[in-house]
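FW: tagging you since you asked about this chain on Friday. Here's the raw sequence from the shared folder, copied in full. Didn't touch anything.
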Amino acid sequence: MAGGRNAFWNAVEGAEDNVEGGYADMASQSLRADDIVIGVAASGRTPYVQGALQAAERVGCLRIGIFCVSEPPLQSLTHITVAVPVGPEPLSGSTRMLAGTAQKMVLNIISTGVMVRLGHTLP
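HL: got it, structure written out here
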């Protein structure tokens, strides 16, 4: 989350534009090469996500990107790219409707698959 843990409760303006912040926040997580990092950026170019993916790359983590454009610039930092081009948002400048919903659906699919593979679901 751009802005770190505190951003869940208090807005941290401009945090998503900080490459170094994304790198530092991700590097502070004690990553190991067997971890998986998922970068979520509607535009496919958010600097904070770039920094986080670079920190994961440095450790050798598997990196997945979930983007809402066809040719995301951050694709070069991911092993797996999920591009869900949703087109323009109904409210200009907002990514809460189309992009946010599409990315949430992709994350739900991933987390459900993980739970099934780990045997945490009933047949």
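FW: The first helix runs from residue 19 to 27.
HL: agreed, and Residues 5-86 form a domain with the Rossmann fold fold (CATH 3.40.50.10490).
FW: great, closing this out.
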